[in-house]
Every structure is written in C-alpha cells, then in structure tokens.
Amino acid sequence: MELILSLELGEEKHRSFARPKEAIREWSSTCSGREWIQIPETTTVKAHYLRLQHRIDQHVLCCFLQHIDIENEIAAGSPEAYTVLTTAAAFGHESVVKQLPEKGVDPDSRGGTRSEWFVGGRIALSSAAEKGYYGNAHILLDYGAVDLCPEDDDDLPPHISAAGNDHREIVALLLGTGVNVNRTHTSSGHTALSKAADEYADSVVQLLLERGADPNHQIYDGRTPLALAVIGGNVSLVKMLLDTGADPGSEINWRQYGEDETWTPLQFVAISSRNEAGAIVKLLFEYSAKCRDIDNISNHEVLFAAAKNVRAGVVRAFLEQGFCSRTEDDAHNRHRLLSSALESSGSREIICLLLEEYGFDVHFQDDEGRTALCWAAMVGNGFEVRLLLTKGADPLHEDKEGHNALFYAIQSANKQATQLLVEYIDVRILKKDYLDNPQVTTMLQEYPDIQKILQSHYWREVYPVPRFSNSIYLGDVLSRLP
Asked: Known PROSITE patterns for this protein (predicted)?
C-alpha cells in the first residue's frame, strides 16, 4: 500500500513522498548530516537520531510507524528494533515506546552489543529509568518488561539507576512491582540506597530508608552509604542516615589500590574537600561516643590528617570538642597539630586558629628539638614564618643536630623564609656560630638565589662596600668582619 507523508519540521513544510523510505531520507538530510535515521535496503535504523526530540515532528513519526510494514522494515525480534525502542525510551518518545511493542517488538529485550550508539545491549526500561521518563517506564511495565535486575547486564538495574539520578517517582514505581529494596548490583555492589547517597539524591534516600533499605550495606570497595555521604559533604543526608541506624563508629575495610585499609566515617571527613566537613564532624560527635573520645589515638590521627589536608572546619570542630585542649598533657599533640598545619600550603586559617584563638606554644620542641619555626622554614611561606616570629618564636634556636630555622630555610631553598629570618637575626652572632659551617657554605653554592638574599642583607647592614666578586662566598666575607 502506498501512502503520502507530509513532512513538517518546525514551521517549515516539505514536499510529500509516495513511500516511507523516501520521506525518511528527506527527513534525515533536513535535520542533520551526522545524527540521522535511515531505512535503506539493509533495514538499518540509526537510533541515535531519536535524540533530536525537539526537532522531530511527532505526528510524522507516529504516521510512519503506523503505516510501515513492521514485518519487513523493522522485523519483530531484530536487534535494530530493540535499539530503536531503547533509544526512544531514553529520550522520552512515548509514542514510539507505545507503538513498537504493539507492532510485535519484545519490550524486555535488548539490541546489539554496546557500540558508538551507546544504547545496544540495554533494555528499554533501564534507559527510561536512568533518564527519568516516568511515562515510558509505566508503558514498558504494562507490556510486561519485568526483568528488573538482569544479572548479565553490565548496566545498573533500573531501580538503582533511577535512584542514582534522583528519580524518586520511578524508584517508587519499580519498588511497587516487588523489587527488593536491598537488591545488590553484582559488579559494583551498589544498592539503590548507596547509589542515591553517592549522587546526593536526598529525596530518594528518604524514600528508600522508609522502605527498609540497609544504611550499613557495603559496596564493592567497602564503603557504606554513610561513608559516601560523608565524603560528599552532604550534611542533611548524613543526619538522615544516622537517624535511621547508620553506624557512625563503624570500621570499614576500604579497598583502594588493591589493598584493604580500615577506615571510619570520621577518617573519611579528613579527606573530604567539602566546606560542610566541619558540620559533619559535629554530627558524628553527637551520635557517637567513640568519635568524641579525646583519649582515642586514632581520633587524634584524624585531626592531624585534617590539618595536613587544610580542613579548617574539621580542625575547629575537633578543638571545640576538647581535643588538644589540655595545655600540659596535650603539649606533644598540640605541637604535632601545629606542625601538620605548617606542612601544607593554604593552611593560614588553621595556623591563625591555633596560635591566636587557642594559644599554641611556639617554643615547644619535638623529639628532635625542632620548633614550629623550624618546620615553617622548611615548608611554609612568608606568612607562617612572619606570624611565628611575631608570636615570639626564636630564630636562633638550634635543634639536637645544631641547626636553626635559617639552616632549614636555606636547605629547602625557601626564599621568603630566608628573607624574613635574616631580618630578625643578629648578624654578628650568626657569623660566629653559624655561617662558617661547611654545610651552610655548600648549600649556598647550590642555591644562588638564597646566597643573593644573604649577600644583599649582610653586605648592606654590616660592611657597606658596593659589591664583591662572585668567587668570594658569604662565609669568607663575614669571617673577616671585626
């Protein structure tokens, strides 16, 4: 039977054709040269074209599907037909999703293997659930697409995919068909709850918890929904999980780089880059006596890690809880916390917090006799060094190896620290006790920029002669001074 199709694209009308194939060819050339649908003698359907939902005249498409010879053009059971159905489900074409099963296409079957068109191998329901097309999901369920958790599918089951994309209504629809809320995806270990927690889908998490989802389930790498929410910095989600039984003190065997390491939710906070990390720490303290135990060594390690990772909100939350608050008993921990902050760039807020609000002692020495100024000279910038000096740090203090802060500044080629330190040090004392050290002379030869800083300062302040030869080193010059 011949038919006449009148193609309309937007407001532009095109000529009529006697056969569907001719109409589709014109349709493809008008819409796009790269994304198209074509039915030549090979009866191949390039389903990628169906993405252009806003450019497809639905009336023409429905007319085409109504009159086409489905047995010959899109044979029921062919991989191409399933690809079209899957793509139509993914891009919201309810008319196509409805008509293809009516023409004999199995709604619960897949197309070819995954390819450049990315839809092969997936069931249509998975595509509809992922993209959030409730109408398409409902149509497919009405036609019997009930294989909700295919074990041989690399893609997430529909209810887990919908959960991860925050499609609450579709999740509720699929759970209503009898899907186990704690059903686990084989390869990833995800449940709907863990996927929703990982993707900040708060409304879906609430629904799943109301339906009895396990808040302590571990995915393939050992992390729980709570751990995922903590890393993501989702305060409301963390509280929701804690209120429904998530264990704030649980030990998780986190598998990374092929090795298992034991982590707690509190430790995950220390590596979270979210601004809300401090609020999450307070929640964990509120719900867990173990987390707020100031005598727990592992809790202190979390605090030090937070300082190294420049998590000021986390450090403040620990200090407010009482960690490192006992001036005498916690002297070593206080020094280590300050040193940890000094080891990282960008930790200005933490250093000010420790020195100005909590009065950390700048003179305390570690087991090697090093003070905070020594550490700042090694790894800090001008701000840290200047702040410590203004707080009374001694630039001439020597550790057990006989080295002072300037030595470590030179050794680390820290120009800012070197410049500040030489402004605070009495040059004659330094000349006598320090600059004649062969180690210093060797380092100055290796770092000419540092040598220039010292030469400029000491030559101007002590022995105002215009300049000296580069072959004469600073130690030799100062040794001649009276």
From this structure: ANK_REP_REGION, ANK_REPEAT
Give tens-digit pLDDT for 176-211: 998 999 999 988 899 999 999 999 999 999 999 999
How many Cβ atoms sit within 10 Å of the Cβ of residue 1? 4
For residues 123 and 145, the answer to whether their CB atoms sit within 8 Å is yes
**Which residues have C-beta within 8 Å of that of residue 364, sequence separation ≥ 6?**
331, 334, 335, 371, 372
Asked whether the beta carbons of 321 and 283 are under 8 A apart, the reply is: no
Beta bridge partners of 262: 253
CA angle 203, 207, 208 (to 5 degrees): 115
Query: What domains appear along the chain, each with residue ranges and CATH number?
Result: 1-147 (1.25.40), 159-214 (1.25.40.20), 221-323 (1.25.40.20)
Q: Which of 331, 333, 387, 341 is nearest to 364 (CA)?
A: 331
pLDDT in tens, 81-102: 556 788 788 888 888 888 888 8
pTM to 2 decimal places = 0.73
- Residue showing tokens 């990833």: 188
| Dihedral-angle region of residue 155 (phi above 0 means left; psi in -120 to 50 means alpha; beta otherwise) | beta
Q: Residue 97 in contact with residue 124, Cβ under 8 Å?
A: yes
Residue 265: closest CA among 255, 278, 252, 276: 252
* Helices 277-287 and 312-321, axial angle in degrees (round to 10): 30
Residues facing residue 256 across a β-bridge: 259
Residue 17 β-bridge partners: 5
Residues 137, 171: contact at Cβ < 8 Å?
A: no
Question: Closest Cα to residue 465, out of 450, 451, 481?
Answer: 481
End-to-end CA distance of the chain: 115
Integer Cα distance of 140 and 206 in angstroms: 26
Q: Cα–Cα distance between 215 and 224 in angstroms, integer? A: 7
Helices (H) and strands (E) in the chain, counts: 27, 4
Q: Are 346 and 354 in contact (CB under 8 A)?
A: no
Give yes or no for a contact between 35 and 105, defined as CB atoms under 8 angstroms apart: no
By the 8 A CB rule, do 64 and 22 touch? no
